[in-house]
Design a protein that fits this description.
Elements: H1 13-19, H2 26-30, H3 43-51, H4 55-62, E1 63-68, E2 71-76, E3 91-92, E4 96-97, H5 105-109, H6 117-129, H7 135-146, H8 157-160, H9 164-171
Antiparallel strand pairs: 1-2, 3-4
Length: 177
């Protein structure tokens, strides 16, 4: 799906959230049946307060840490932890998301029914997982792009690492000086 230029890497979260008004359609609820979105660091205290739980206990019982682009973030566990995909622990077939008011940022951005749904997914990836100061994160992102990953405006590999010599050194796995 082609980017429609509403969202760029540098678009502030407040503007992205304006495009992602809560939706309960089947396309948006579908992803809750097969996993969950990642939480930003700001989300975790809000979710713990909403659940009346200690944040560390909540993370241990209800969240898992996963790594993408060499960056680890928390996401809600699935109801079947022995499988890589499954219903989010906070998903209920009748009510939908049981923590809707404080759900993780990536869940708020998930808009399967909108033409810019892929843009919001990639916006989260480049703003919360991609670390321009980490050579391994840059390498993994470059691989994502080379294998057909969706490119968001302002998030080309040249934008992420504008120094050509450094970029070539990183991507060739040369030891950095």
């Amino acid at each position: 799906m082609k980017s429609i230029a509403l969202i760029r890497k540098e678009t502030p979260v407040s503007e992205v959230l304006k495009l992602t008004q809560p939706c309960g359609c089947a396309a948006c609820r579908q992803q809750c049946k097969y996993g969950s979105g990642f939480a930003s660091d700001d989300d975790l205290p809000k979710i713990a307060k909403h659940l009346c739980m200690d944040q560390e206990v909540m993370k241990q019982q209800l969240f898992e840490k996963r790594t993408l682009l060499n960056t680890a973030l928390h996401r809600p566990k699935t109801k079947t932890p022995q499988k890589p995909f499954g219903e989010c622990v906070f998903f209920d077939y009748k009510r939908g998301c049981t923590i809707h008011e404080v759900k993780p940022l990536q869940c708020k951005l998930a808009m399967g029914c909108k033409e810019y749904g892929n843009d919001t997914r990639v916006w989260f990836l480049v703003n919360y997982f991609l670390n321009p100061a980490d050579p391994q994160s840059i390498r993994e992102y470059a691989t994502y792009l080379k294998t057909g990953g969706h490119v968001l405006g302002g998030a080309t590999i040249e934008n992420i690492c504008p120094n050509k010599a450094l970029r070539e050194q990183i991507l060739s796995y040369e030891r950095l000086k």
